[in-house]
Amino acid sequence: MTKSKYCFDNVDQLRSFLENEVVTTTEAVELIGCSRQNIKQLVDHGTLMPIKQTPRERLFLKEDVLNYRKRK
């Protein structure tokens, strides 16, 4: 079994991670410089994977969004 990349010792560490390393669709749009529709297409094609998806919002790892921006 491999050790998880994300391990938190307490709730404050988790909150800090969520605040600094998880972005909404709106934040992803700003980081990439594209439209919300483009984000939807990236998700639909499997290019960008949300870590959480609800009917109204998607959450992404900031690292994934920045890596996509580098490749773009």
Class computed from helices, strands and strand pairing: alpha+beta
| Element-by-element helix/strand order | HEHHEEH
User: Portion of residues in helices?
Assistant: 40-55%
What is the quaternary state of this protein? single chain
Rg of Cα set: 13 Å
Distance between the termini: 34 Å
Shape: globular
Discrete helix count: 4
* Biggest sheet, spatial arrangement of strands: 1-3-2
For the largest beta-sheet, the strand count, sense and barrel status come to: 3 strands, antiparallel
| Percent strand | 5-15%
Q: Which regions have little confidence, pLDDT < 50, spanning 5+ residues? A: none
Question: What value does the average pLDDT take?
Answer: 93
| Whole-number tally of structural domains | 1
Number of strands: 3
